[in-house]
Design goal:
The protein has about 290 residues and is an alpha+beta fold. It has one domain: Hotdog Thioesterase (Thiol Ester Dehydrase, Chain A, Roll). The chain has a ten-stranded antiparallel sheet with strand order 1-5-6-7-3-9-12-11-10-8, covered by helices on one side. A two-stranded antiparallel ribbon has the order 2-4. Helix 2 packs antiparallel against helix 3. The longest helix has 15 residues. The radius of gyration is 19 Å and the shape is globular.
């Protein structure tokens, strides 16, 4: 790549974006079915991280790039031939998000930083979102995305053997994650995500160099954020920090595990032999 990514993001400061949506119970039910996680929150309350299936964009087909992502977006940096990866983030809950009510979301860019690594040059973009209901701040989120430009100059990637059986673990919390094609399709559908790595096997393998379809990073993170509620629905998530470390591919045997320690827990999506795909920490308090 001839030009440094720094030149494209220096001085790039998009304005704050304010949007509204209604947290419909129907959409929440779609995600509960996808996660196999019914009854993990009090009636009428949206579990933290489930807000990712709202504020869905559906750009015109003509506005999509070859990879399925939109050519333009308010918080997409002006990098040519962008390739995006969800790298992680954090969620802070200040109060319950109530279902079937309108919520206001305000987004702002926190930082845009060029970085270099073994796989080449990249730009790390952090966007903060604040969610308000009835004029009160209910949730703050930071999303971190990595952007590259065009094809990687690095050598072709090699991948470890695909995990075929669930890993053995002594973790106190555990949920084996199903990673079939139908779930990937439904996750893409309910989030309006047309990135081809999640449904177009030929594109994923021949263009982006993956061994198979890629499981959505947010889907894996949602399994972790929901994990404690499977074991004790009275636990209320207050803080959730996560980082995507390695991709998961369709059909891989992976598990969400948690090691609780009082009002906190260390959480991971893992596969044999002890490969960590997503790592997270969480703090809770017990609702009355």
């Amino acid at each position: 790549m001839g030009n440094s990514l720094e030149q494209y993001i220096t001085g790039w400061k998009p304005s704050a974006l304010v949007e509204t949506d209604v947290l419909t119970s129907e959409v929440s039910g779609w995600l509960a079915d996808l996660l196999a996680a019914d009854r993990v929150a009090p009636p009428g309350v949206l579990p933290p991280s489930w807000h990712w299936v709202y504020f869905t964009d559906w750009p015109h087909y003509e506005g999509l790039a070859a990879d399925g992502h939109p050519h333009a977006g308010h918080f997409q940096p002006p990098i040519p031939e962008r390739r995006r990866m969800w790298a992680g983030g954090s969620i802070t809950s200040h109060g319950d998000l109530i279902l079937d009510e309108e919520v206001e979301r305000t987004g702002t860019v926190l930082s845009a930083v060029p970085k270099s690594g073994r796989s080449g040059e990249m730009a790390l973009i952090s966007v903060q979102y604040e969610f308000r209901q009835r004029g009160e701040l209910r949730l703050t989120e930071v999303q971190n995305h990595v952007y590259r430009s065009g094809a990687d100059d690095a050598p072709a990637r090699t991948w470890p053997p695909r995990p075929q059986t669930p890993v053995e673990t002594d973790a106190g919390w555990r949920h084996d994650i199903a990673t079939d094609e139908i779930r990937l399709f439904r996750m893409s559908a309910i989030t309006g995500n047309s990135h081809r790595i999640h449904y177009d096997r030929r594109y994923a393998t021949e263009v982006e160099g993956y061994p198979d379809l890629v499981v959505h990073g947010p889907l894996l993170a949602q399994h972790l954020a929901t994990l404690a509620l499977r074991h004790d629905p009275s636990l209320r998530l207050e803080q959730f920090d996560y980082r995507v470390q390695a991709p998961v591919f369709v059909g891989d045997a992976v598990s969400a595990i948690g090691r609780p320690n009082g009002d906190s827990a260390e959480l991971q999506v893992i596969s044999a032999p002890d490969r960590v795909h997503v790592a997270a920490t969480a703090t809770y308090h017990r609702s009355s």
